[in-house]
Structures are given as structure tokens and as C-alpha cells.
Amino acid sequence: MKLLLVEDNERVTRFVVKGLQEAGHTVDNADNGREGMFLAASEPYDVIIMDRMLPGQIDGLNIIESLRKSGNRTPILILSALSDVDERINEGKKPTKSNQHRECDPESFPVAMRESCESPCNREIRDH
After folding, report:
1. How many domains does the chain have?
2. Which DSSP string do the residues of 66-113 spell out, in sequence order?
3. How far apart are CA 118 and CA 12, in angstroms?
4. Which CATH number is 47's domain given?
5. Which residues of the chain carry a pLDDT beneath 50?
6. Do residues 101 and 64 lie in contact, with contact meaning Cβ atoms separated by under 8 Å?
7. I need a surface site. Which of 4, 36, 91, 124 has the fewest CB within 10 A?
8. pTM for this one?
9. Domain range holding 97?
10. Of 49, 20, 21, the residue nearest 36 (C-alpha)
11. Strand ranges of the sheet holding 76-79, from the earlier edge strand across to the other edge
12. How many helices (H) and strands (E) does the chain have?
């Protein structure tokens, strides 16, 4: 699979990229929101792995909102260091299958990535 990782933490980026490449995936990465938005909008990806809290004016949630408004329905996994559920809720809305993104921690994202790609809803979106 071709994946995009948008993550500003170098240590996390090295860990995730290494693991995904060892699993046979192609990984592009961006270390800031502006570059992540550009890549996500200009390249076709099977899955986007998004850090929720990026430095600067464009954070992960801003990128997701822009992509969805533009019609981009690529499955998105959100990596978040936030531990409290209330902190992870943006404007009172949890990510759902209907808006095609979900939160996960680094240890569980390989399973979440596979489940996102295998979802019947995602297959239907990619087929259109």
C-alpha cells in the first residue's frame, strides 16, 4: 500500500516509517501541516496516518476537514498523544465510520490500517 504519514515528531516518524516499510508498504512523510496538506491533496494514497497535533496553523484536524470538504475520502488514521477521551473530541464530535477517519495509538495502528482498508465503505468510496 502507498501511505502518507503526517507527523512532526522525528522519533515517532522513524519508528512508524521503519515498521511500515518492513511490512512492504511505500511511505511518504511530511513533518508539518502545510506539507501534509499538499501531499494528501496531490497524491493518491491508500491510507493517511495523521498526527492530530501538528505545530503551526494547520493541524491534523484542519487537514482532515479540508480533505473531506474537497471530496477526498482516503481512509485516515489519527495518531494522538492525548489520553483523555474528552481531549480527543473535537467540537463535541468523535470520528466515525461515516466521516472515514479514526483515532488510534502507535501500537494498534497496523490493525486499524488494515481494518480501514478492508472496510466495505472504503472499498465503495475508492471504486467511485
Report:
1. 1
2. HHHHTT----EEEE----SHHHH-BTTB---GGGTEEEE-TTTHHHHH
3. 25
4. 3.40.50.2300
5. 84-89, 91-101, 120-128
6. yes
7. 91
8. 0.71
9. 2-127
10. 49
11. 26-30, 2-6, 47-51, 76-79, 101-104
12. 6, 5
